[in-house]
Amino acid sequence: MSRTSVNKGAPQTPHQDLHSEQGSLRGEHPGRSRNPVIKVADLAWLEFEKPDLDRAEVFARDFGFAIAARTEGELWLRGTFAGSPCMVIRKGRTSRFIGPAFRAAERADLDRLARATGSTVRNIDVPDGGQSVALLDPSGLPVRVVHCFEQLPALPEQQPLILNFGTDHRRTNATQRPPREPSRIQRLGHVVLETQVFARTLDWYLDTLGMIVSDFLFLDGQRGRGPTMAFVRCDQGSVAVDHHTLALHLGPGSAYVHSAYQVTDLDAIGAGGEYLAERGYQRSWGIGRHIQGSQLFDYWRDPDHFMLEHFADGDLFSCDLDPGWAPMSASGLAQWGPPVTRDFLGANPSPAKLREVMTALRGDNELDPARLLGLMKAMSS
């Protein structure tokens, strides 16, 4: 099933051609595996190490997480929805991203995955217990697939405001005064990763974890070489799920880019952003609305310079929707909002970044001078 074709008589917009009318061209990546090992149900949590758990907890509460568990060496963060935690931060010598954990659809999937990959099912230290299979993706990033014994119970929600639309008056004799407080996180939505081996890494997630592509991005004049970014969702059949649970893009590093956490609505994003700004945190980019995924977004840096996103109102796709194909560009990242920042794009030059680029160009990977120039052009267009 393809997306609705562009109306030839409709007025042209800056984003008219962001999706090709026919989707993929003959011979292009289909965006899914014919016979994946398993199909993960969702992203469970993200794993980090940081030297200062007290500082990490202060930011976590300001950003809107609840605390699921805290020990001398671990901090487990959660949202209001029932389910698994959103994040675990372990005490370590430096601040670094360890990797993602995906939720198995059923316990038997762990055994199936372990047999196919030569791995072992092991118990994990998670609130209420669980088991996992530990893997490495082609970028060398540790990836867990987990099954938790018990779900965390739901917490009280931040209620959406009642809105008036035109002649649809749902609120009368009442005012709107959203409190300036942390945006209450509901759940973990997605993680974005950079990789030097984009094609191999993408195929690994599709073949091993059964994920499927919602949208591909390609470089101007280089579509024939294949995509350089993919927005990937879980496959739950006819059940519509987030437009992307994982996004991958080609780059000189193999690293965490950002992670995204759902909140109630635009007012929760706005009021929560004011709360963060008052406490001196750095906004990276926002507030705006994305194109791929359609989310309302607002990006922030934590004290360790990791980027986290508040989002609301994202697209939901079922399994029968084919991938879209669009040119990669900085202006194509949002329908509306402030201009994308250099901080968000990771375009601030530094000696470390230059060394990373030079090392990547000499390495055995998918980044070459033409790809690098194409990425630089895309991020300035």
Structure characterization notes:
- With 381 residues, this protein is of the alpha+beta class.
- It is 19% helix and 30% strand.
- It is built from seven helices and 20 strands.
- It has helices at 53-63, 108-117, 198-209, 266-278, 342-345, 351-362, 369-378, and strands at residues 42-50, 66-70, 74-78, 87-91, 96-103, 121-124, 130-136, 142-148, 187-195, 212-218, 229-233, 241-242, 246-250, 255-262, 282-290, 296-301, 307-312, 316-317, 324-327, 334-336.
- A hairpin with a 5-residue loop joins strand 6 and strand 7 (130-136).
- The longest helix is centred in the C-terminal third of the chain and has 13 residues, at 266-278.
Which structural class fits the helix and strand makeup? alpha+beta
Number of helices: 7
- What is the terminal separation in angstroms? 31 Å
Uncertain ranges: 1-16
Number of strands: 20
Estimate the helix proportion, in percent: 10-25%
Secondary-structure element order, N to C: EHEEEEHEEEEHEEEEEHEEEEEEHHH
Q: Could you give a short account of the major beta sheet? A: 10 strands, mixed
Q: Compute the gyration radius: what is it?
A: 21 Å
Q: What proportion strand?
A: 25-35%
Morphology call: globular
Mean pLDDT: 92
Strand arrangement in the largest pleated sheet: 19-10-11-13-9-14-17-16-15-20
